Structure of Transposase IS701-like DDE domain-containing protein:
Amino acid sequence: MSAVLRVPQRDRAVAAGNSVEPARWREMFDQAMARIAGRFGRVEPRATARVYLLGLLSKALRKNCRRLAEQAGHARPGPMQRLLRYARWDADAVRDDIRSYVADHLGTDGGALIVDEAGLVKKGHASAVEAEAQHLVLPR
């Protein structure tokens, strides 16, 4: 059985108030990356995945391969594009590893984690698919 906690707009300030200190955040990120490191057969895609994820989690406004590569100090977006197009890694296994890490370190009975980068729901007006807020559901 799973549970999802949806935070109403008026309560988001309260939810955002529970944050992690930057040094602790980096430590936890490093631990999560160590957990998924074995899912990448080579050092290069593992290192690229790390900077790619840091870019996705950053405050950068545009999060495409070119912009994230520039932010990471890469001369070109090739390594990130290779990670997403050609590198061999099991996305489902990485997801399961991260879910397990979150449950081990942040989980409580009846708790739920909502990852929400800005609290903005994509409306889907300019896309072919109507989009809705997405939430990570952890099994109890």
